[in-house]
Amino acid sequence: MASRKKKLQGLVAATITPMTEHGEINFSVIGQYVDYLVEEQGVKNIFVNGTTGEGLSLSVSERRQVAEEWMTKGRNKLDQVVIHVGALSLKESQELARHAAEIGADGIAVIAPFFLKPWDKDVLINFLKEVAAAAPALPFYYYHIPALTGVKIRAEELLDGIQEKIPTFQGLKFSDTDLLDFGQCVDQNRERQFAFLFGVDEQLLSALVMGATGAVGSTYNYLGKKTNQMLEAFERKDFSSALNHQFCIQRFINFVLKLGFGVSQTKAIMTLVSGIPMGPPRPPLQRASREFIDEAKARLESLDFLSSTYLKDRNLESCS
């Protein structure tokens, strides 16, 4: 596994938690999943037990087991494994943080507690500080996702002075569409080597222009190759090509959003694209409808995102 001092950058796949038809975790396919990400999508960093991984629908024991399996199967294949350890219970979050350190994770991330909510930045930082202290050798990332947590504390405010209170703080997973907030996070922390990881896949190019250093998202499980092409075009300042790649990605995401797109649908799409069975989601989520699967499959085929043909070099005309 990579050195923990290495900056987390580029694409980070928010991993899905594969399940059997009976709703138990299907550990048997995770090794195959690792190989698929690395060899076919060109994605070598992962974010485990987050929203896409249904982390908060799993028991603490299950979350530990999932993290262990990804670490075991990803050893010598993945660059960085960041484990989400956020929970409503501080004690559970600390337990998961300690466990992540024990198994050799490259970092931990935490969302804001979302039932009894922190009401200002200082209260939230105090909670995060207690979790980070349980794994003092691990890089710590704040996972900002206000649409799901209901915690509207601006990330810009939270980052102001955060490293003085949480010395292991190394960056932010920003899963919100507020590019003003995101831009100010970057602008006000230019002297610090923070990782600014954007979490809204369909807006990544905009975030790159604002200074994002990487991205964490569910679509990088199956659109990693296409997104990497966008990153490469952006790096060489070929903004026209980068925009074409972003539009191509947006066409698919826009299409599935209109059908109803969430964790259940992500599992169905990943099963279609990779051939690895991801199974149903855990209740209260329900599996994707047959109608959704059929329509998504047709769209994936029309964009050359499905099957091994997607892995070959394609011109942009095929993405229409």
Automatic annotation (TrEMBL):
Superkingdom in the source lineage: Eukaryota
Enzyme Commission code(s) on record: 4.1.3.3
Catalytic reactions on record: aceneuramate = aldehydo-N-acetyl-D-mannosamine + pyruvate
Cellular compartment(s): Cytoplasm
Pathway: Amino-sugar metabolism; N-acetylneuraminate degradation
Main location: cytoplasm
Pfam families recorded: DHDPS (PF00701)
Alphabetical UniProt keywords: Carbohydrate metabolism, Cytoplasm, Lyase, Schiff base
Family: Belongs to the DapA family. NanA subfamily.
Assembly notes: Homotetramer.
Protein name per the record: N-acetylneuraminate lyase
Organism: Felis catus (Cat)
Lineage: Eukaryota, Metazoa, Chordata, Craniata, Vertebrata
Underlying gene: NPL
